[in-house]
Design a protein that fits this description.
The chain has two helices and eight strands, in the order ββαβββαβββ. By secondary structure, it is of the alpha+beta class. Helix 1 packs antiparallel against helix 2.
Length: about 150
């Protein structure tokens, strides 16, 4: 990956835990998404600001599961989000069986991710994505998206 970035925050108010290595396009897309989509969704549903995002994986040079093709993680072009931490101490884990408020929040974030990110996977997609949202910027034919 040319010019990797070590990202510690997604703007002045949202930390990324732990810090993550990613490419510039992914860092910019995640920063915009955290501030323009996730933070307003957290405020609507929980009355609190997004304080940090806990991720499960960022840059790691590996193939896709069950494939010889490299994962977007190998290009610093993907982030796996496991938890959203809010300013009032609330934590929202990405899980297959969230509570009602958490489900509304997670559903709105997941739906909004499809567009700015070209691949969006999460609970219900497959066994590998049962506890996190996988977001990546993989280029697709005709600029399309793959969201499950």
């Amino acid at each position: 990956m040319p010019y990797p970035l070590t990202v510690q925050s997604l703007g002045p108010e949202v930390k990324l835990e732990p810090e993550a290595v990613m490419n510039c396009a992914m860092a910019e897309s995640m920063t915009d998404f955290a501030n323009d989509v996730i933070n307003p969704a957290a405020q609507r549903e929980f009355g609190a600001k997004l304080a940090s995002i806990s991720h499960a994986s960022a840059y790691v040079c590996r193939p896709r599961n069950g494939s010889a093709k490299l994962s977007e993680h190998a290009f610093g072009n993907a982030l796996d989000i496991a938890r959203f931490n809010l300013s009032n101490g609330t934590s929202v884990d990405v899980t297959p069986t969230p509570g009602e408020r958490e489900a509304r929040f997670l559903g709105s974030v997941r739906k909004a991710a499809c567009g700015p990110f070209k691949t969006v996977l999460g609970p219900g997609s497959d066994a590998d994505h049962g506890t996190h949202f996988h977001l990546d910027l993989a280029p697709r034919k005709n600029g399309g998206t793959f969201c499950e």
